[in-house]
């Protein structure tokens, strides 16, 4: 399992370096609100509960502050819909469950809870690939910038005798078809587990809102991951200098998959627990030529991935790697500027429990 985002509130913390995810949410927040108002029947959901408690979970919440913005947006949409159904939203109570891995920094998360919040908050540690809540106890699940993380690296990728042995690579970016297939198979298995668990936990008529990095239908499956190509080149340079072993690079694989709408739709339909209310590919940047936050990309790389590199390479190598990302950042900037169409690609999906 991948390491959690960087803890605390320091210079390299996720809390201070998650503007990319916040941009993704901000670009989708009005769409989230519109789709929820159209698709969720709050009155019917409340009529099936013992109390007037609307339960929400953020799956993969990390340390904030993005999760709090998302929760407030969702609650506002639910209250608007309830009001439009002739009911008084003041009669609703909201319970929000913030979920992430056991090793997530829940202390930082709860220390930064909004003081003026209008919901009850609780933390739920554990992997969202399996069950987290009792049967039919959740009205709405929200999952942003999380499902692209695999639960584990496929065994074939670290088997030297396998056709999917990922020699000289750290991702399926520019890798052989066997590597791509292994990644895709693991992603499909993970998503099936995710949907099966939510199928039991979410009440009928409840919804899942998913925001995830993705690729357009028809795009070459292995032509993604600008940042990973950059990091890979640094690691190979360290191998050539004798600072790390080639086997250390070969056995390291980034646990990320970027699905297409076609792939996601196929998984949801095959699973059968949910109907697709909306699923589309969007771009978080309003204009293709909009400026790219280069320095933010470097900081986000460390905030999101440092723990994963530490687990495999150790602190000394990880520190050297991130030092070199700063020294060679102009290379990444050039790569990003040449591949603008990849940056900001986002799958937006709303699924309704059958």
Please, could you describe this protein's structure?
With 354 residues, the chain is an alpha/beta fold. It has a single domain (19-353), classed as Rossmann fold, CATH 3.40.50. It contains 11 helices and 7 strands. The protein has helices at 19-39, 42-47, 66-84, 106-111, 177-201, 226-240, 246-250, 261-271, 294-313, 315-327, 329-338, and strands at residues 53-59, 93-100, 120-125, 138-144, 202-213, 274-283, 345-353. A 7-stranded mixed β-sheet has the order 3-2-1-4-5-7-6, sandwiched between helices. The longest helix has 25 residues, at 177-201. The chain is globular and about 70 Å long. The two termini are 30 Å apart.
Judging by the overall fold, what is the CATH architecture?
A: 3-Layer(aba) Sandwich
- Counted up, domains total 1
In CATH, the homologous superfamily goes by the name: Vaccinia Virus protein VP39
The separation of the N and C termini measures 30 Å
Structural classification: alpha/beta
Q: In which order are the strands of the major sheet placed?
A: 3-2-1-4-5-7-6
Task: Please name the CATH topology.
Answer: Rossmann fold
Please summarize the sheet with the most strands.
7 strands, mixed
The CATH first-level class comes to Alpha Beta
Mean pLDDT: 88
Low-confidence stretches: none
Sum up the overall morphology in one term: globular
Taken as a percent bin, the fraction of beta residues is: 15-25%
Total number of helices: 11
Report the C-alpha radius of gyration, rounded: 21 Å
Order of helices and strands: HHEHEHEEHEHHHEHHHE
How many beta strands in the DSSP annotation? Answer: 7
Could you estimate the helical fraction of the residues in percent? 40-55%
């Amino acid at each position: 399992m991948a390491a959690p985002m960087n803890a605390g509130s320091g210079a390299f913390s996720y809390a201070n370096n998650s503007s990319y995810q916040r941009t993704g949410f901000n670009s989708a927040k009005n769409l989230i609100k519109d789709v929820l108002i159209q698709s969720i029947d709050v009155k019917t959901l409340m009529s099936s509960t013992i109390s007037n408690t609307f339960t929400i979970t953020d799956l993969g919440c990390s340390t904030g502050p993005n999760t709090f913005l998302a929760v407030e947006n969702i609650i506002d949409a639910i209250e608007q819909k309830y009001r439009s159904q002739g009911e008084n939203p003041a009669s609703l109570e909201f319970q929000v469950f913030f979920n992430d891995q056991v090793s997530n920094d829940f202390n930082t998360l709860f220390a930064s809870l909004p003081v003026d919040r209008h919901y009850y908050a609780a933390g739920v540690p554990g992997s969202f690939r399996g069950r987290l809540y009792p049967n039919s106890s959740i009205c709405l699940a929200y999952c942003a910038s999380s499902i692209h993380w695999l639960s584990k690296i496929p065994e074939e990728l670290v088997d030297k005798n396998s056709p999917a042995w990922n020699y000289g690579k750290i991702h399926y970016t520019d890798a052989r078809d066997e590597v791509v297939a292994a990644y895709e198979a693991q992603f499909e298995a993970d998503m099936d587990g995710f949907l099966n668990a939510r199928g039991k936990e979410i009440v009928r008529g409840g919804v899942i809102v998913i925001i995830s990095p993705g690729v357009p239908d028809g795009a070459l499956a292995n032509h993604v991951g600008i940042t990973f190509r950059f990091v890979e080149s640094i690691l190979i340079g360290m191998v050539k200098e004798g600072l790390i072993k080639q086997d250390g690079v070969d056995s390291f694989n980034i646990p990320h998959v970027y699905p297409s709408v076609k792939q996601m739709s196929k998984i949801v339909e095959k699973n059968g627990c949910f109907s697709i209310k909306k699923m589309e590919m969007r771009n978080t940047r309003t204009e293709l030529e909009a400026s790219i936050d280069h320095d933010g990309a470097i900081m986000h790389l460390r905030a999101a991935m440092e723990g994963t590199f530490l687990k495999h390479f150790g602190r000394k190598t990880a520190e050297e790697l991130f030092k070199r990302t700063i020294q060679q950042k102009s290379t990444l900037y050039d790569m990003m500027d040449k591949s603008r169409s990849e940056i900001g690609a986002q799958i937006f999906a709303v699924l309704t429990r059958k």
